[in-house]
Amino acid sequence: MPQAAGWRGDPLWLADVLRAEGLDVAEFAGWRGRGHGDFHDIRGVMVHHTGSDFATAASIAYGRPELPGPLSQVHIGRAGTVTVVAAGVAWHAGVGVYPWLPVNMGNWHTIGIECANSGTAPWAPHRQNWPDAQYFALVNSCAAISRRLGLPAARTIGHKEYAGRAQGKWDPGAIDMDRLRLDVARQIGAPARATSPRPAVPVGRYADVLLYRGTRGRQVAELQRRLKFAYASYAGGLEISGEFDVATEEAVREFQRRTPGLHVDGIVGPATAAALELRLIDVDL
């Protein structure tokens, strides 16, 4: 049965739900007890490529010296075998932001799917180097998980959509996420909606701006300078440190509260940067 949105805790039902979708499912030894702690509420699915056509489920389960596994909950091989490797939190998302996720908290709110694929290149056409068996296993896995959680296809996102600006991520490469979401929607059996909800943002020179608590550098210092001297009534005491700290976030929130049309989240994205008329700095510290 579909689970109402807002499922909390580890998805111990993963293998059963994927198998019920008709997928070729393998269960990696010990997957039910593997993870970096327990999930918060699960809000969606995040899709990745491993960077290699030959990455194994074991490499995802155990990780590597600098990043211990699990690195996702699910691994999909090129022949379409879906291996469940973990039920707990996995280190797959890292730093990033998306409208329906808390900043930098993707690991605790999304189920990660790693596909054994090189990704080809950021500009590669849709499904280049993605065998049919692997691609449709991905579609059906996303659909099965989303249906179980009671979520629409719009809650399937790519790592590049969450962490592209924050980390330079471009996975899953050679996957047009809007086209993938259409295929997931069809598999769920819901009306197809290609796009995942995003806040309206201006195009042009501010398109790549993303500053939030914890980021640092010359662009943050310029933000602090702009707030301090242009909005002294509430940001006059701001320290120009180059580190996006709590005080900077509060000043940004106040600016957003006072500016019609901005979402109040303390994050400086394209819309907030444009409203601030923020001077862009080419090179960060």
TrEMBL record:
Catalytic reaction list: Hydrolyzes the link between N-acetylmuramoyl residues and L-amino acid residues in certain cell-wall glycopeptides
GO biological process: cell wall organization; peptidoglycan catabolic process; peptidoglycan turnover
Nuclease found in the keyword field: no
Gene Ontology MF terms: N-acetylmuramoyl-L-alanine amidase activity
Protein name: N-acetylmuramoyl-L-alanine amidase
EC id: 3.5.1.28
Keywords in alphabetical order: Cell wall biogenesis/degradation, Hydrolase
Domain N-acetylmuramoyl-L-alanine amidase: 30-173
The keyword Flavoprotein is assigned to this record: no
Enzyme class name: hydrolase
Family to which this protein belongs: Belongs to the N-acetylmuramoyl-L-alanine amidase 2 family.
SUPFAM superfamilies the UniProt entry points to: N-acetylmuramoyl-L-alanine amidase-like, PGBD-like
SMART domains on file: Ami_2
Record-linked Gene3D superfamilies: Peptidoglycan recognition protein-like, PGBD-like superfamily/PGBD
